[in-house]
Amino acid sequence: MKTVRGVAQARIALRRPSLQSTALPPAVTARLKQIFGTALTVEEAVARIIEDVRAKGDTALRDYTKRIDGVSLDSLVVSKREIEKAVAKTDKALLAALERAADRIREFHQSALPVSWFDEATGLGQQIQPIASVAMYVPGGSAVYPSTVLHTAVPARVAGVKSVVIATPPAKDGSVMPVILAAAKVANVDIVYKIGGAQAIAALALGTKSVRAVDKIVGPGNIFVTAAKRRLFGTVGIDGLHGPTETLIIADDTAKAELVAADLLAQAEHDAMATPVLITTSEKVAKAVAQEVSRQVKTLERRAIAAESVKNRGIIAIVKDVREAIELANDFAPEHLCLVVRDAREQAQYVRNAGGIFLGEGSPEVLGDYNAGPSHVMPTMGTARFGSAVGLHDFVRVTSVIGLKPGQARALAEDAALIAKAEGLTAHARSAELRM
Hints:
Number of domains: 3
CATH superfamily of the largest domain: Nitrogenase molybdenum iron protein domain
Largest sheet: 6 strands, parallel
Helix content: 40-55%
Low-confidence stretches: none
CATH class of the largest domain: Alpha Beta
Mean pLDDT: 95
Number of strands: 14
């Protein structure tokens, strides 16, 4: 991991590439040329996929699944029988763990459930209703994420969404991983689609013969999924634009190097583009964590991925005090912010920008990934400056209600008419004056 000292050097080291950066690894560029027969950027490839799905529907979905994933599909939908067989095959201890995780996620979100209200005195209120249909994108590839099923579908059900569906890339044999289907059953998902990538986002937004168009799509995905969500926003709602995962740990001299290193590597093994960061007030801790990372990474099954993440994107910054570290974190706006310091709860009040805050070594980010309760789908790439973790707000619509009594309307009309005339909108003014 790269080590820097002082705030100025830390700020330089913590600069991110743009979420819309089009730079691609040579292997991805070559793969795009192989698929499309010509060199394309991510945006060009995604635009072509979307237009093909719009024009050809299921035929385009099958074609791209064959060309990109190498899978020929008879059906784009997982049957109820396949789901039941997957649940029956799932290890009973794992199934119980998924059910307990779902219970905690459900309880957390039930405690945050918004309610409609109306104040007779002011004649104002809000009507809160669930979105009718929502799709969860669940990534595939080198890892499997039943946890993402739970952390998106369970809050949607708590909010009262009537139609909850999942899209996830198929395995090479055309099936969906049994543990994903087991999680879908636990989360009470209605339909599971065997499609991934930009083509899945296009189908969910536009609809095809086999895939129902939805009102909103939530969940993380690769650069092509993100580009498709950006391009289709407006046709469909989205939760946000997600980049590679990131964890920033702030540690003082009380931190245990073994635990800090383990937490950094837990993020690094996700993806070679993952960003593990430590900001510490202790030279001793910085050195010990660097040594522990080097030792522990060799023991991981996904050590090649974790090692690349640590080498290219891992940072250790040494600063004067915890408050200075928190200010750096606020500027960076990490997806996960872990405070492994004295009085972590007290220090948390100074945090302005983070997807999630984890207090102390007893609250590691890994438990947030699985079964602490809040959704693990959090804003990345600095979007925690204005974005939030997936929650009930993603699954409801808030409609303003105005129900003024005649006396209230008369009291407001004169000022409304004055403002309308200042805007040059005389019809507005007349409408208000008629209530005076």
